[in-house]
Amino acid sequence: MNEINRKPLNSLGYDFIPSAYLPKGKDEYYLRNKQVKNGIHYRHLSAYEIEVLVRNRNTSDNWNNLLVSDAFNPELVQNCKFFGLVRIGKLEPYYLEYHNLRRPVGFYNSTVISCDFGDNVVVDNVNYISHYIIGNGVILVNCNEIATTDHSKFGNGVLKEGEPENIRIWMELCNENAGRSILAFDGILPGDAFLWTYFRDDDKLLNRFKEFTEKKFDALRGYYGTIGDRTVIKNCRILKDVKIGSDAYLKGANKIKNVTINSSSEANTQVGEGCELVNGIIGYGCRLFYGVKAVRFVLASHSQLKYGARLINSYLGDNSTISCCEVLNSLIFPSHEQHHNNSFLCAALVQGQSNMAAGATVGSNHNSRSPDGEIIAGRGFWPGLCVSLKHNSKFASYSILAKGDYATELNIPFPFSLISNDLSKDQLVVMPGYWFMYNMYALARNSWKYIDRDKRIDKTQSLEFNFLAPDSVNDLLQSLPLLQKFTGKAWLKREGNTKKMTEEEIIAIGKVLLDTKDPVVNELVVLADGFENSKRPVRIIKVMRAYHLFKELVMYYLVQQLLEHIRTNNIKTHEQLIESLPSKTTLAPWMNVGGQLILRSEIDKLNKQIVTGRIKDWDAVHAFYTQQGNNYRMEKLAHAIAAVREVFDINVKKASPSIMKSLLHQSITTKEWMVKEIYESRAKDYRNPFRKMVYETAEAMNKVVGKLEDNSFIKQEQKALEEYKKDIHQLVTKLKLDKAGAKLKTA
User: Fold this and answer.
1) Of these four, 139, 312, 465, 644, which has the most CB atoms within 10 Å of its CB?
2) Which residues pair with 591 in a beta bridge?
3) Residue limits of the DUF4954 domain (predicted)?
4) Cα–Cα nearest to 743, from 664, 648, 651, 674
């Protein structure tokens, strides 16, 4: 049975805070008065103003509780009902216009309960607005209900006085069994969400994260909802316990409940028709349109939900777009794209710069007795058309999966790989380095695109967008001995050698074959183990090419860090360069913490400081991100130096002028090859007869898809190559390396 309470009419609009939760000596407006910062001096109505208001068919339970500013015009208030303490700012005879919506300033045909209004607002046909603080120049038109409860939390995962723990709102990220649940809060960064979901074996750390979240807010009851200056809300049905920033635009939303909508003049947020949003945080500059559904969610800044997308128990990182499809129980780092109605993402950690194609299903829990599976995908994850993946699976950086149903769990440690399901031979096929061999255009353009589209105002976390970075290079480093091992095994099998050998001996055989570029490698059937949870073969192809490509990339990575170091520190001599290089260059693991790459050792220190109480709140955690961002350039340089020493046994700290010169010149060769591949991978589309066949003439094709020679990105990269060559030659002269003659041997 519905419980409908009956109370005296004269109590409507009063006793907002239950007496049990009202501090001694305080009235029900004490928090409201702290929230109001518009600087308006309110006064009581004059007898004449009351007379005009009554004549215009307005009512109030007590005219003494309707306070106004000195510039109040009673003629602009018509057919309204006021209950409780209502304060109204300046009303002047103007109309406000926004996107062809024109409405006169004032209050018309509305019911207002205990609210504060700034100057020159429009409140027209608002059936019910209760306990809100509204800024200046706000337009509210055709809204059914805008209300705040005394226990409002605005999407933050906290409790108010007297509330039981079991009503707390948790976000169940990365796993459907709620084993990685976290609390949302206004200002949560993707790094915060990652740390909270990842380190689940440290109860003290998890409790501290919960304490940090509760510390950001107090448990007091009685906070009012707020609507910032110049916000426009029209044709919306229900807004309950919603905090809205300035310059937001809400039109036609069905229901928004327990949500913070961040918006500002620099980064305004829009919510469109048919949206239903419950228990969430929306960042600055977001767009939500056309029937999207989001429940228990965080939408980080400058992200979009469109065309019926469903985002449930998930965190979507900055600069991301999800259209049409369904995303459940996932933690998604910045720069994610998912545009298709029939794609599905569930129980996954997707570490950014990712793209979900149409028909992709990531993943299915049907291979487990309970919904507790997970998928972890490194940066650049790209499941292709109609890809179906099973939990648990794990992928290295920049993995792309060809169309197919992958029936068992996968663990792919090779970065930049194409993974395909060869049904004719019943085998999994992995091509390491695919992106560089066949799709350099997309790889390079995506790296540039993410930088260009990073619209974040708050850059507390320094995001890494380059495809060569500590995470992907570490993947390269772990791939080299694997390629050696699998090659050694394949050679021994071909030779019929059944002698029992240690793994080190097998690796040594493969290393010799690969380093000497022995032609026999191209004749071997190289198989991997541990890549798929099945008994069928996993074949590695293009092994020789991938092996030497990976080594070349490690060297190129070093040169890029050296160039950045030289530019940043205005280094003028070879001696100065050597002296400025970091002394500690041991290889170490890194973590992708919400799109920011941080040394694992630093994360361990952070966690320890959190547990011991040295780091006391989320602000201190965010300060840690900032500090790590400041350290990143030197730490990345140290990592690159260590990587080259690991692969080539070259000590860059002791590199002679001739070796440094050779390093720089070799990078030109790599850069030239990359730019050539950028052009060639795009040119294939123009040479493909099956692409050309839908056009009668080459001119028609060029009109539709544009001329290859006019491609702005290719022209940009070709120009950058010429500048790169010029910079390298100038640098060789500047560092006085031009007389050094020895060449670097890398194989």
Assistant:
1) 644
2) 598
3) 42-485
4) 664
* H or E segment and range at residue 132: strand 132-134
DSSP-H helix ranges across 455-541: 470-494, 503-515
3-class SS of residue 147: strand
Instruction: Enumerate the β-bridge partners of residue 350.
Output: 332, 377
Burial class (CB in 10 A: 0-12, 13-18, 19+), 3: exposed
In whole angstroms, give the CA distance from residue 192 to residue 572: 41
Q: How far apart are CA 346 and CA 342, in angstroms?
A: 13
CB 491 within 8 A of CB 522: no
Task: Please provide residue 597's backbone torsions phi and psi, each rounded to the nearest 5 degrees.
Answer: -90, 125
DSSP code, position 19: G
Which amino acid makes up residue 487?
Answer: T
Token pair of 192 as six digits: 């915060």
Instruction: Give the Cα separation of 82 and 63 in Å (integer).
Output: 9
Is the confidence at residue 89, as pLDDT, over 70?
yes
Residues 6+ apart with CB under 8 A from 500: none
Mean pLDDT for the stretch of residues 16-42: 93
Q: What's the full length of the chain, in residues?
A: 747
SS3 (DSSP) at 606: helix
**Structural element, H or E, at residue 390:** strand 387-390
Residue 731 CA to residue 723 CA, distance in Å, equals 12
Cα(123)–Cα(338) distance, integer angstroms: 38
| Contact between 561 and 581 (Cβ < 8 Å) | no
pLDDT-based confidence at 516, cuts 50/70/90?
very high
Pairs from 283-290 (Cβ < 8 Å, separation ≥ 24): 283/318, 284/245, 284/457, 284/458, 285/455, 285/457, 286/262
DSSP state of 410: B
Cβ distance 156 to 217 under 8 Å? yes
Query: What secondary structure does DSSP assign to 253-284, as a single string?
Result: -SEEEEEEE---SSS--EE-TT-EEEEEEE-T
* Residue 45 phi, psi (nearest 5): -70, 150
Please check whether residue 228 is in contact with residue 246, taking contact to mean a CB–CB distance below 8 angstroms. Answer: yes
Q: Which residues pair with 538 in a beta bridge?
A: 428, 528
Taking alpha carbons only, the member of 286, 295, 289 closest to residue 308 is 289
> Is residue 140 classed as helix, strand or coil in its secondary structure?
strand
Alpha-carbon span 747 to 471, nearest angstrom: 24
Could you write out the DSSP letters of every residue in 710-722? Answer: G-HHHHHHHHHHH
H or E, element range at 728 = helix 712-734
* 28 — pLDDT class (breaks 50, 70, 90): very high
> CA separation (Å) from 548 to 272, 472, 477, 479, 542?
52, 16, 12, 11, 10
SS3 22: coil
Residue 331's pLDDT band, with cuts at 50, 70 and 90, is very high
* pLDDT, average across residues 391-398: 96
